[in-house]
Amino acid sequence: MSNPEDHEGVTDGLDGASQEALDEIRARAELEAEASPENAFGLAGQPFNMRSPFFVGFIGALGVACAFALAYVVVAASEVLILLGLAFFLAVGLDPAVRWIHRRGLPRWTAVVIVLAGVLAMLGGFIATAAPVVATQASHLASELPHYYRELNRHNTELGRLNRK
Predict the structure, then answer these.
(1) pLDDT digits (tens, 9 = 90+) for 118-138
(2) What is the 3-state secondary structure (H, E, C) of 78-90?
(3) Are 113 and 99 in contact (CB under 8 A)?
(4) CA of residue 14 relative to chain centroid, distance
(5) Angle of CA points 5, 9, 15, to nearest 5°
(6) Burial (CB count <10 Å: 0-12, 13-18, 19+), residue 111
(7) Where along the chain do its domains lie?
(8) pTM score of the predicted model
(9) Which of the 8 DSSP states describes residue 48?
(10) What is the DSSP letter of 56?
(11) Contacts of 148 (CB under 8 A, 6+ apart)
(12) DSSP 8-state code for residue 16
């Protein structure tokens, strides 16, 4: 740990600095930089070498950082992007049916409601048809799990040999 008394000499000169002294320092810096009212910051230095290793490395690092940032944004927003993509494909896929109904004289909102009701009815029918089959298969798997476990532990069966690898 440093003692605060060790640094007293560093700040002593600033306590007594007057505005005149600061103006004099600024004037000397402007004179050295050849500043003028037209060039408030002084003359431009030598142009930067675009082929220098520092510049090439900096641009490369900047590109990698941008790629990582873009990848992070895509990963962070992936759920939203998936939902937007799904909505887009549903809208594009169902639009011909909506247009067909709309051409028959119904308002567009009615055509959308009819198509949406049809899609939901088909989804409900699929679930109603698939649910009993899935439930039967799941109960069959649950009843066979002890048998599969014994087969895995026996090394002379096909499952036992696969388990050993």
Answers:
(1) 999 999 999 999 999 999 999
(2) HHHHHHHHHHHHH
(3) no
(4) 49
(5) 110
(6) buried
(7) 14-45
(8) 0.46
(9) P
(10) H
(11) 159
(12) T
